[in-house]
Write a structure and sequence with these properties.
This protein is an all-beta fold and about 140 residues long. It is built from no helices and 9 strands. A 6-stranded mixed barrel has the order 3-6-7-5-4-8. The two termini are about 30 Å apart.
């Protein structure tokens, strides 16, 4: 007698990165990077903003996962710097995670969920011609 595994996918399949490049983003507006997607594993998220004169006060990635929201953010970001989402051991409060510049890989993926949506956000006093960029690496079942 031979044992056979079921024909069900047990390992998520990597997808092409989803990328947002938003010219002239409006302060306080959320821009969709990954629209609501079913059965997703988020591997990594990166965001950056580049400006000429006025520094933004807040740069964020909003993640809605199975109806709950996590916010990864940094105050006073540096122009043209890539920030990656990491779970901070110091801030174990849902909705208050961090964006860091260091290449820290301490887990194989950030999170997974049955329903996931990812949005990019920037806030500042003076809107100016500026690109907002966000990249998400993910896999699906």
């Amino acid at each position: 007698m031979t044992f056979q595994l079921p024909e069900k996918k047990t390992v998520p399949e990597h997808q092409a990165d989803t990328v947002l490049t938003q010219a002239n983003p409006v302060s306080g507006t959320k821009y969709t990077v990954l629209d609501t997607t079913k059965n997703v594993r988020i591997i990594a998220m990166m965001i950056k903003i580049t400006w000429a004169t006025t520094q933004p006060t807040i740069l964020r990635i909003y993640v809605t996962i199975d109806g709950c929201t996590e916010i990864f953010g940094i105050a006073n970001p540096v122009s043209g710097t890539n920030y990656q989402a990491v779970f901070s051991n110091w801030y174990l409060i849902a909705g208050d995670q961090t964006l860091q510049t260091a290449d820290i890989v301490d887990r194989s993926f950030l999170f997974e969920g049955r329903s996931v949506k990812i949005e990019a956000y920037v806030e500042w006093a003076t809107t100016q011609p500026t690109p907002l960029e966000c990249r998400v690496k993910y896999a699906k079942w």
